[in-house]
UniProtKB/TrEMBL annotation:
It comes from Luteibacter yeojuensis. InterPro entries: 4-hydroxybenzoyl-CoA_TE, HotDog_dom_sf. The lineage of its organism: Bacteria, Pseudomonadati, Pseudomonadota, Gammaproteobacteria, Lysobacterales. This is Thioesterase. Coiled coil: none annotated. Pfam families: 4HBT_2.
């Protein structure tokens, strides 16, 4: 069973013409781009976007990506992409759902795992940097109504 995230962000995306094949079906590789849009919104909400990551001295490459396609998205379709923060203390794990924005029908489920890599020497970190954990905890406190 898939765990629910502690924080979430949603973005709407309308499938552009350049993302589809001759049958007007979204090419499978473009779903990764839609996940990125939602992940960026989630990280912005946490206060630890890619600009802050770099400023704190860490990159967060994706080391694992899982996609499960249920139904094809099509040209012009309005999609809702939801990203949920599931893990953050040792790695960054995010679950995604891509749904039809009008009906709510699920089209795709996905997850990514990212790990911190110190920019100075390229060393992978076995725990998330304290600055990242602090940003997540601060956002969780705001969500729970703590001062």
């Amino acid at each position: 069973m898939r765990g629910r995230g502690v924080l979430a962000a949603e973005m709407d995306v309308v499938v552009p013409f350049f993302d589809v094949d001759s049958l007007e079906v979204v090419w499978h590789g473009h779903y990764v781009k839609y996940l990125e849009v939602a992940r960026c919104a989630l990280l912005d909400d946490v206060g630890h976007n890619y600009v802050r990551m770099k400023a704190t001295g860490f990159a967060w490459p994706i080391i694992d990506l899982q996609l499960r396609y249920v139904r094809a998205a099509r040209f012009g379709q309005a999609l809702r992409v939801r990203a949920e923060l599931v893990e953050w203390e040792n790695r960054l794990k995010i679950h995604y759902t891509v749904s039809d924005a009008a009906s709510g029908e699920r089209l795709t489920r996905a997850s990514t795992i990212q790990v911190a890599v110190r920019l100075a020497d390229g060393e992978m970190q076995l725990v998330s940097p304290s600055v990242f954990i602090h940003d997540v905890e601060r956002r969780l406190a705001r969500a729970s109504g703590e001062p």
